[in-house]
Amino acid sequence: MFDGMRPGRRALVAAGVVVAATAGAVAVAVEARALAGCRVDYTVTSQWQSGFGASLTVTNLGDPIDGWRLAWTFTAGQRVTQLWGGTPSQSGGQVTVVNASYNGAVPSGGGVGLGFNASWDNVSNPAPVGFSLNDVVCTGSAAPTTGPAPSGPAPTSGPAPTTGAPTPPASYPNPGLVTGSIGVHDPAVVRAANGTYVLVSTGNDLAVKTSTDRIAWRNAGVVWPGGAPWTSTYTGGSRNLWAPDISFHNGQYYLYYSASTFGSQRSAIFLATSPTAAAGSWTNQGLIIESSGAVNYNAIDPNLVVDAAGQWWLSFGSFWTGIKLIRLDPATGRRSTTDTAVRALSQRSTAGGAVEAPFVVRRAGFYYLFVSFDLCCRGAQSTYRVMVGRSTAVTGPYLDRNGVAMTSGGGTQILAGHGSIHGPGHQAVLADVDSDILVYHYYTDSGASRLGINLLAWDAAGWPFVH
Predict the structure, then answer these.
(1) What is the pTM of this model?
(2) Which helix (H) or strand (E) holds 235?
(3) Which of 19, 203, 249, 273 is the most buried (most CB within 10 A)?
(4) Coil, strand or helix: which one is 463?
(5) What order do you get walking across the sheet with 422-431 strand by strand?
């Protein structure tokens, strides 16, 4: 748990993730490995005109270290323009990064992650070469000089290395410290290239909040200052819009959001784009999918995921027959015209079919489907709880930890109400520079809806837990 510490000061980034400004779009993945004291997993997460985003995770296969200096060489003129998790310098093609104050200590078998943006020539963007950690060449798998030797070479796919994996806490943590404007419902967060966090949530015209440290939040207007009249068919004229999903791809921000009324199947999901994510900067890109009594699903609670091949998908759904998935066109962010199938990801035959708020995360060879079970929006009587399953394919099948399919009611619980924390749910996952984090709302004893943020880690079997 946070234990009063600033969330931006925690140390370790989970292997294979990148900051939210480029999260979700994965184009190239390589791994440097052979026989030395460290290994580097490098991923290009997105590319745009003259620029790209990337992440890398360094695994320490030698003795524990209290500070580090990571170096590599770009061979095609690429230049780091922004970096999170350390202090970079570059001379020609040689890049050197010195640890930040909070992530310098790396145990044997531990790791540290970096995310960065860089420029390139739009012609060639090969992976860096010559990685070294404290002047030790990172060419692969070697036993540390203290402690047990690893039982085999590090995997190139599948779950992250288990050596030194953290242990889940004995009980659910309380939300981490947040201050300021924290009255939110259905939050979604992205980290912009300048380090600012942008949060969008359910509300009239879609409320926007910002933070520079993930703790202090301030109001920053609304997505649609003039309203969104194209949604009124589904909202009954209300300006209250629901469950936004925000991410950054192709040099712009994408915002999927819902229009409906409580308990109705007459619902729709829309798309907006913006170069900045600032209030009032958004352009309406129109309807993506709608639902009515003519179909067996409810078109709310969207979430965009980009698979390992660069294909875009939108999960969505609430009650009825549960969570669905449709293919999108990466060029437009709109629904594919060549693959119009509506695929099933999760369904419950109990609790009135109460499953909603999907969020899909790609990590270490798996796709993880986070959902909320049970009932939202009842103040302190809310029974929302966060569940998860995983699959080797974005389209499923998703199984829980016990092997039960999520289409058969399966799901492994990772967060539920406890003490004065009621109904935590409508979760989103942000791969930040210091850790993966879980963002959600919960209700206080008074029934007020509040922002919850906790760190998210992964155990030795590759399953997430909140701390």
Answers:
(1) 0.68
(2) helix 232-235
(3) 19
(4) coil
(5) 422-431, 436-443, 449-458, 464-466
The domains located in the chain, with CATH, are: 7-137 (2.60.40.290), 179-466 (2.115.10.20)
Tokens of 206: 């879609």
Structure tokens at 218: 């301030």
| Residue 23 DSSP SS3 | coil
pLDDT digits (tens, 9 = 90+) for 337-388: 999 999 999 999 999 999 999 999 999 899 999 999 999 999 999 999 999 9
Residue 173 makes CB contacts below 8 A (sequence gap 6+) with 1, 2, 454, 466, 467
Residue pointed to by tokens 């693959």: 339
What is the DSSP annotation of 90-107?
EETTEEEEEEPTTS--B-
Rounded to the nearest 5 degrees, what angle is found at the Cα of 261, between the Cα atoms of 257 and 264? 105
What does DSSP assign to residue 405? Answer: B
Which residue, 380, 381, 387, is CA-closest to 426?
387
Q: How many CB atoms lie within 10 A of CB 192?
A: 17
| Residues whose CB is less than 8 angstroms from the CB of residue 241 and which lie 6 or more positions away in sequence, other chains included | 202, 203, 204, 205, 206, 223, 224, 228, 231, 235, 257, 258, 259
User: Burial level of 89, CB count in 10 A (0-12/13-18/19+)?
Assistant: exposed
List active site positions: 186, 356
What is the DSSP-derived secondary structure letter of residue 233?
A: H
pLDDT for the residue numbered 162: 36
Structure tokens given for 390:
């995983």
Structure tokens at 98: 């010195």
Terminal-to-terminal C-alpha distance of the chain: 4
Answer yes or no: are the C-beta atoms of 382 and 422 closer than 8 Å. yes
* Residue 211 β-bridge partners: 197
Alpha carbon distances (Å) from 370 to 122, 216, 385, 386, 438? 36, 26, 10, 7, 10
DSSP state of 65: B
Give the Cα-Cα-Cα angle 465, 16, 28 (nearest 5 degrees).
150
**Could you read off the pLDDT of 190-223 as tens digits, one per residue?**
999 889 999 999 999 999 999 999 999 999 999 9
Type of residue at 101: S
pLDDT tens figures, 377-417: 999 999 999 999 999 999 999 999 999 999 999 999 999 99
Name the residue among 64, 62, 15 with its Cα closest to residue 36: 62
Instruction: Please report the DSSP string for 325-379 in residue order.
Output: EEEE-TTTSSBPSS----EEEE--SSGGG-EEEEEEEEETTEEEEEEEES--SSG
Q: Give the CA diameter of the chain.
A: 68
CB atoms inside a 10 Å sphere around CB 185: 18
CA 414, 417, 353: angle at the middle one, nearest 5?
A: 75
CA-based angle 241:246:248, to the nearest 5? 150
Distance between CA atoms of 286 and 131, rounded to whole angstroms?
Answer: 45
